[in-house]
């Protein structure tokens, strides 16, 4: 219960107001001082247009007849980590290659590891090629902010080399 005399604000609205106060503009004139972006899913859809495409290309280069479409990949994203994602998928389709003929757990893990390394190299080729589209409005917003003197930064827990390359190549 709020103390006597305190305004009664629903919890959700109170928390939203408290968040807004913490992230309010800090400039003396109320101007925005900085604009921070995440990379994955904000600047570009790296999962759909990068990692998924790279997984498919890795399968193709290794002669594996597997294609992850957008819907399947969306479900696979419920599994954290690329190697874990591949392992789960190949276990689910163990009646098909490569797990059909590779039954030893260590050999399966080694195959998944090598596929993941190839996938990572292909992903970097995609990033460096600049073929992942920016999300709508991102380039305009970033350039307008910079033109207005606002500091723009990207924060991410993703691979630093990939994020830096996305920023350098696409923005």
From TrEMBL:
PANTHER family hit by this protein: CBBY-LIKE PROTEIN, XYLULOSE-1,5-BISPHOSPHATE (XUBP) PHOSPHATASE
Renumbered residue ranges of the record's region Disordered: 1-23
Pfam families (alphabetical): Hydrolase
Molecular functions per Gene Ontology: hydrolase activity
InterPro entries attached to this UniProt entry: CbbY-like (IPR044999), HAD-like_sf (IPR036412), PGP-like_dom2 (IPR023198)
Name of this protein: Uncharacterized protein
Gene3D superfamilies in UniProt: Putative phosphatase, domain 2
Lineage of origin: Eukaryota, Viridiplantae, Chlorophyta, core chlorophytes, Chlorophyceae
């Amino acid at each position: 219960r709020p103390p006597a005399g305190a305004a009664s604000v629903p919890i959700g609205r109170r928390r939203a107001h408290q968040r807004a106060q913490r992230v309010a503009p800090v400039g003396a004139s109320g101007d925005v001082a900085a604009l921070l972006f995440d990379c994955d899913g904000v600047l570009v859809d790296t999962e759909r247009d990068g990692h998924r495409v790279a997984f498919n290309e890795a399968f193709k280069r290794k002669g594996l007849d597997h294609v992850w479409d957008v819907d399947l990949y969306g479900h696979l994203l419920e599994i954290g980590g690329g190697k874990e994602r591949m392992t789960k998928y190949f276990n689910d389709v163990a009646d098909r290659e490569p797990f059909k003929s590779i039954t030893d757990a260590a050999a399966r893990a080694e195959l998944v590891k090598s596929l993941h390394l190839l996938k990572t190299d292909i992903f970097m080729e995609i990033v460096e090629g600049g073929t992942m589209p920016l999300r709508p409005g991102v380039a305009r917003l970033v350039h307008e902010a910079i033109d207005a003197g606002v500091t723009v930064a990207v924060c991410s827990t993703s691979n630093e080399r990939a994020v830096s390359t996305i920023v350098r190549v696409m923005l």
